[in-house]
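Final report, Chapter 2: Outcomes

The project's central promise was a pipeline that accepts a single protein chain and returns its three-dimensional structure in a standardized token representation, suitable for archiving and comparison. That pipeline is now operational. To close this chapter, we reproduce one record exactly as it appears in the project archive, with the input sequence first and the structure output second.
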Amino acid sequence: MHEMTPDQFARCLPMFTGDQMNLARAMLKGMISCRVFADDTVSPSAALVCARRMGICFVAGDSHFAESLLSRLRGWHLWYEVIASDESWHKPLSEWSPLSAAAAHYSLTFAPERADLGRLRRMGRLPLGMRVQRMDAAILKLVEKERWSAGQLGLFSNDADFLQNGYGLALLDGDQLVACCSGFAPIEGGYELQIDTQPALQGKGYATIITAVFLQEMADKGLRASWDADSIHSLRLARRLGFELDNAYLCWSLCEENVRPAAM
């Protein structure tokens, strides 16, 4: 297998189709820092795309190359979430580790031109005493300090990258961080969303509120949003907020024990 250079990434794009491959296409277009491996750098027929910052990966093309491609993941990140282009990849993914497991995910899209802004305004009404603030440098430091919200930085390379190219909102009660919604990663024409709520305050509707406010701002800017729902609860919330279901697919979780990630 060969590691491709950024100027070669676009050659893999035709293999990564479907809404569940939004992030893969963003990586291949240079919007997200990643590594790409393929069977051939000139005319690839199979490829592995993996974010540098965390183990979010996509595989597509001829699965006869699966074993060689997936071997490139060993000794890098401690865990991976892998989305495949078709079912022919499922067997090699299941055999990658005794800890391999698959779960149903749902790809959804928010189209600003079809947004029900009145409904979003009602769903985004703030509780008395709470406020929404855009994530600036100070709020981002607060967000990253909490374990439950640290993933808001998403696939951006660092704070500076997020502040320049990303977008996020925080729901605050005084100085207490309650919930967050951010563009986890840039995609064509918008963002992939990440929503988090303080564990002790879950089930009170705060995720709905902050996401509704975020979507209003996306609609005002003409930006679309995508959501990778990993549970029926998330799927229902997304539908309530105006997201449209694109498709359902399997996401594979891979974990290799006693492996220390290599320095990148």
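Archive annotation: Residues 260-264 have pLDDT under 50 and may be disordered.
This record, like all others produced under the grant, will remain available to the consortium after the project formally closes.
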